[in-house]
Amino acid sequence: MKTQSTTKSAPVQASSTQLEIDPPTTLIERNSIVRISTLCSMIGISRSMAYERMKPQSRHYDARFPRRIKIGSRSVGWNLLEIIIYIKTLNRI
Fold it and tell me: Cβ atoms within 10 A of the Cβ of 34, count?
């Protein structure tokens, strides 16, 4: 008769220092800057509404909205990872 080994391997546990980000978010995407058109299409709002959500005096102001980053003398962008996190917070509410 053959005997089978009954040793079980311990499950591999993830390190507590690892970021919990969905697989599509690669290292490149974490540092990616996107422009207003991409921001608006990802969130599903118009360009004017995006700027209204950034303006503290507006009734549409949202303090959680991703902060813009100045990328040139007359251009701004938004961090892709911040946009993804913002979308996830919208889905939780």
Answer: 18
